Amino acid sequence: MPVDLFEQARAGDHEAFAAVVAPYLRELQVHCYRMLGSRQDAEDALQEALLSAWTGLGSFEGRSSVRTWLYRVVTNRCLNQLRSAARRPVAAEQLPVAPPEPSRWGEVPWLQPYPDVLLDGLADAAPGPEARYESRETVTLAFVTAVQLLPPNQRAVLLLRDVLGYRAAETAELLGLTTDAVTSALKRARATMATASSAGRPAPPAGGPVERALVDRFVTAFTGEDVDALVALMTDDVWVRMPPLPFEYRGTEAVHRFFSAIDGHRRAIARMVPVRANGQPALGEYVRDPVTGVLHVVGVLVLALDGDRIGELVHFESALAASLGLPRTLG
């Protein structure tokens, strides 16, 4: 970055400041999303953090890179949001039928999908030497959901150390903690993640023939065949979730009961439009209006693939379809 551009920003040139931060905006927003689990909350946190960075630009002494300084500002903004417990209320649509007893009650009702189009180019931001996770893994819904179960400090430490690859001393400086506190928090966070995450088989290459074939088989079974055919595509320990509704189902028996209960609604789906979210295949669900014949979006499904099976299915409400580029209606 040209020194004169940064000095122009420090002198009050807002366009120069925008140019300084532009190369980092996408990765910073994804970092906020990992911290908060909601794209909407992530966007709000990033904007507030950029305002804080702009007003505090004079205090930047250049002892770290601009990127690291921005991560400090953004991470602390997310931590403030988490500690304030000021999340916006999450309204939930009702299921068309009474659901069966869930396997457990969901703990992350604010979870939202993240469009793949906003992940383009992130591979260029290579993680540091301490990173333990693959970039693709850290944007999956399963990973983001597991991170939400961590206390704020553990969450920040895990993401800075194991995802972004900052060293322990760097992470301590970013968060205003001691190195011992960072090491302790990371140990506890890793233990929680190991418990919350279930390691399955690698997903097939994104957009490749194996993935396309499995998604096509899923669409056929979901819209036209019996529940047995649908469940046969899933792993034995499959999860079905539907935030912000709290019902979660695990295993083929529980999932079979769930899909049997909503069989009429499932068969009403007239078209499923492919899209991508969180590095995973996703589908917009459309139902035909019996009077006008127009197709209306009624939800979004995001699939996690486990080898040649489906290991997780997450349903999101129709209000989030537009954020993935899905139209509200189809002719």
UniProtKB/TrEMBL annotation:
**Keyword Plastid belongs to the record:** no
Query: What keywords would UniProt list here?
Result: Sigma factor, Transcription, Transcription regulation
SnoaL-like domain: residues covered: 215-310
Q: Which residues are in the RNA polymerase sigma-70 region domain?
A: 21-88
Mind telling me which InterPro entries this protein's record contains? NTF2-like_dom_sf, RNA_pol_sigma-70-like, RNA_pol_sigma-70_dom, RNA_pol_sigma-G_actinobac, RNA_pol_sigma70_r2, RNA_pol_sigma70_r4_t2, RNA_pol_sigma_r2, RNA_pol_sigma_r3/r4-like
GO annotation, biological process: DNA-templated transcription initiation
- Identify its protein family: Belongs to the sigma-70 factor family. ECF subfamily.
This chain belongs to the protein called: RNA polymerase sigma factor sigW
As recorded in Swiss-Prot or TrEMBL, the protein's gene is named sigW
